[in-house]
Design goal:
The chain is mainly alpha-helical. The chain is built from four helices and no strands. The longest helix has 11 residues.
Length: 68
Amino acid sequence: MTLKKTICTLGEQLRAAREKSNQSLKEVASCIGIDTSLLGKIERNERPATKDQIKQLAIYYQIEEKYF
């Protein structure tokens, strides 16, 4: 029996939100004022997002902060 992974990391949640909106890393990063490579690292869980970045991303995707 194979179980599906139900708990997603912040990076996985951010990538899913970006892909759902059909936007590139560059578009999202530019809109929230961070570097494209930084957003990519956050999505790959190579670097943690700051509280301010999480807030900006929540506003951008129109998702409650506590979702992230």
